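User: I need a structural model of Nicotinate phosphoribosyltransferase from Lysinibacillus fusiformis for a docking pre-check later this week. Nothing fancy, just the predicted structure tokens so I can convert them on my end. Input:
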Amino acid sequence: MKYADDSFMLHTDLYQINMVQTYWKDAVHQRKAVFELYFRKLPFGNGYAIFAGLKKVMEFINNFGFSQSDIEYLREEGNYPEEFLHYLQNLKFTGTIRGMREGELVFANEPILRIEAPLAEAQLIETPLLNIVNFQTLIATKASRIKEVTGEDVVMEFGTRRAHEFDAAIWGTRAAYIGGFSATSNVRAGKLFGIPVSGTHAHAMIQTYRDEYTAFKKYAAAHKDCVFLVDTYDTLRSGVPNAIKVAKELGDQINFIGIRLDSGDLAYFSKVARKMLDDAGFKETKIMASNDLDEYTIMHLKSQGAKIDAWGIGTKLITAYDQAALGGVYKLVSIENENGEMVDTIKISANPEKVTTPGRKRVYRIVNNENGHAEGDYIALDEENIQQTERLKMFHPVHTYITKFVTNFTAIELHESIVENGKVVFEEPTIQETQAYAKKNLKLLWCEYKRTMNPEEYPVDLSQACWDHKRAIIHDIKEKISKKMDTR
Ligand SMILES: Nc1ncnc2c1ncn2[C@@H]1O[C@H](COP(=O)(O)OP(=O)(O)OP(=O)(O)O)[C@@H](O)[C@H]1O
Ligand SMILES: O=P(O)(O)OC[C@H]1O[C@H](OP(=O)(O)OP(=O)(O)O)[C@H](O)[C@@H]1O
Ligand SMILES: O=C(O)c1cccnc1
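Assistant: Understood. Predicted structure tokens for Nicotinate phosphoribosyltransferase:
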């Protein structure tokens, strides 16, 4: 590489830097701005998403700052004025971020992160934040869908070879663990994040020794815990009998943990293999399956009565096979004007779902105290005090005739303090705590929101004040436009 280092500050779209230059030239770069990060549509047709990505966001904020070579590069390639480059070189992140913790259930149109910072700083972090959150939330959600159908079975992440390169493998497997996976085959992810690592062996080992019997014996000589891959030649006539033969010969010298099926009719093979193992006295030996699995195939296998106890899942999880991206966005909701006052802003669209909601907001999960389930999420303006409310009116923000009143409830505020005045203040839980948090959250949801096909729509409502505020701003803008049209 031509440059001495590689910070993440240029891991952004050029237009961000160009906008910052515009703000700087116009001397508005220091104005206070409030942005919100959210997505408009749940991925995979799922009824909820699981937020992941905060750890990397915090790392990014901790390392915010252009390096010497970033500036050199911009000087050579960008045609930026020297004073602007000097400004960038000294730029620090001084803003405040509130947001959800990883493992939080999140729904469409609710702010996951709220960024308040001088305009230039808030603008510069848009692309990396979206890059991180969109990918990791997508994978955590896919993993959670798979867990929804596998229940308490062991589910292992095997995707590194098929992931979209190194970072996707590492952060993707971390997201999968948050979504409920039991372990990963990626050893570095284990080292970096404390995720349990585990694995079996590949066909290459059988091919190396030519026959399964020898290969299993050699593996057993080196490893006490054995899961034998049984499909290299003929699963039922050769693989399973050889695994049983070796296990019988070695007795207590090994733990015959399981066999792995990796091709063919997994339902049929698993049923026959189960019987063979049971008949040989290996009732505790587990059957693991892999081969292009996802929640749909697993559901089918289960409906066929497959005797599979553990699942190895790669490609379709780590590449989010059926949905390439989560469409998270980062929208300006409030900006300081020339008089130092905050002015709430909106982006209008013909599609009501794309109209942004102005103002600094908080998100609450409204939990019914009688049954312990969530009634919905409630987005209120920052200054509203909903904890004092005894009877809460919830209504659909687009189809406003859909209404309900909630009385005996707890309003859990979902945003926590992540960064204050440029300093990361959020204390990161362990990855196990984060996984447990996601699992606990899922218990709040009625099962109608959790089914993997055609789930019910979980309510995400605006408070009356928030809704009125939005309507008033839309009204003002429409008035201004029509007055301008009239004077033409
Ligand atoms: N009983 C079953 N019901 C539904 N789907 C199954 C069943 N058994 C296997 N599958 C799935 O069907 C697909 C079969 O794919 P494919 O034809 O590539 O496998 P294969 O020919 O058995 O093995 P390979 O090509 O990997 O050697 C896989 O996604 C697998 O998970
Ligand atoms: O199928 P996935 O969900 O992606 O799980 C990972 C796959 O990786 C391995 O296969 P390998 O790379 O040896 O290739 P294969 O597809 O020919 O089995 C393993 O045997 C699984 O089949
Ligand atoms: O450990 C395994 O069995 C494994 C790991 C990665 C990919 N496929 C299988």
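Before docking, keep this in mind: The longest strand covers residues 328-336.
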